[in-house]
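Bumping with the actual sequence this time:
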Amino acid sequence: MVGLILIFIIVAGFLGTVASFAWAWADSLDVPPAIVIGAALAIVIGAFIAWAVADSRRLNRRVQQADEDPGERLRERIHNVNQAFGDAAALMDELRRDLEAQQAARESLLEEAERQQRLLNLNKDEAENIRRILVGETKATILAERRREWMFFGLGFVASAVASIPIGIWVNHIS
């Protein structure tokens, strides 16, 4: 009872302080003091009522907890712990399966990378062989063209020599 009287005295003092500040504020705003004091007191009383309701709910919750059987509370906590362990085990199993799936995917990717590397090496070897063949064919083609050019030069030289001798004799004979 003494606590309630003390709370009442504190609240009354607080309300008086709010009223005096509201009166001074009302004078500076040129508003009737009753409106400002009423609004300030309504806000303060509303806040006090909200605090009282919240405190009452907290007190009721504590009373309900005190009324509960400690054994029942312990059983409920044990049940919650067991349920949490069950959930954790299920999550661990799911994580294990996900990890295994990721490892399988990683292994398949590594195998695919190795296969691609082998194909790349094989393609490099084939490309080198093709380059050698092309270079060899190109050299052979160049040599064949050079021989053909020399042959045409030689045939042209022989043909000009063969044709120029009778022409030279004929020219000498005419002159």
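The tokens above came from a reply further down the thread. The chain has a mean pLDDT of 80.
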